[in-house]
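re the bet — no i am not wrong, look at it urself. input seq straight from the record:
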Amino acid sequence: MQWTSEAIVLEVRAFSESSSLVTVLSEGYGLHNGLFRRGSVNLGDIVEATWTARLPEQLGTWRFELKKSCIAFVMRDVDKIQCFKIFAAVLTEVLFEHLKCLDVYEAARNFINSFSSFYDLSRLDSAGCPGNSPQNELQRLLWNLLFVELALLPRVGVVLDFKDLVKASKHDPLEFVSPRTGRIVTRSMGEPYKDKLLAFPSLFLEDKEAEAEASGQNVFQLFNKRSLEDLRKMFSLTHYFLFKSPNKSRTGNTISDFHRASLAALLDTLP
């Protein structure tokens, strides 16, 4: 059997002297592994991937046609490399193989595209310099990583519940999340139980249409006040739900520990 789909290269591991075991997130077939025997492929490449095998349960082989590479924008930046490692580790940890997840793929593609968007010529200032500082670039990259993690939440059975959004106001914003149900409540509702709840960024939406449409699937509309503190709170939230039962990584540490420590180090570099 054979299929072809756009895909993002997440992991490349040596398999033999002449082949590599490559893991991709594909648009049409989700997380997938296969052997790649010819040429070279880099982490973060967006490719047209063709997978071929005699039977669906076999490992199969890859054929790649490069569509876009971000390696030139990442290779000399340690923080961006670390950000990609977190991205790949979370996807391979949470997703089941061969399960189509278009919403996750779209968020992942936006994350990869954000590497090169920092150097878009249209963003140059009058002096010919990029309009964003390295700190701003990293913060934008981390927000795109957060959107990937939010898209993953339904895959672990968590849908953030915004039904109390209509009760929020500037004086009583959404501030807590139930660790059991994912329900987001206002400050006044959660204050008596705050020791048992997770923190949520204090947000107030003035756009009533956006309020009415807000849900776990289009939660990105809510982040119109993007601060570093909001970013820390949201990563703590996604970390809790994604890694309730962390698995061991190949290095012996848990992916959960790697996720927490790496994000903390990156966030500490921001002003």
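see?? The chain has a mean pLDDT of 80. told u. also The first strand starts at residue 2 and ends at 14. so pay up
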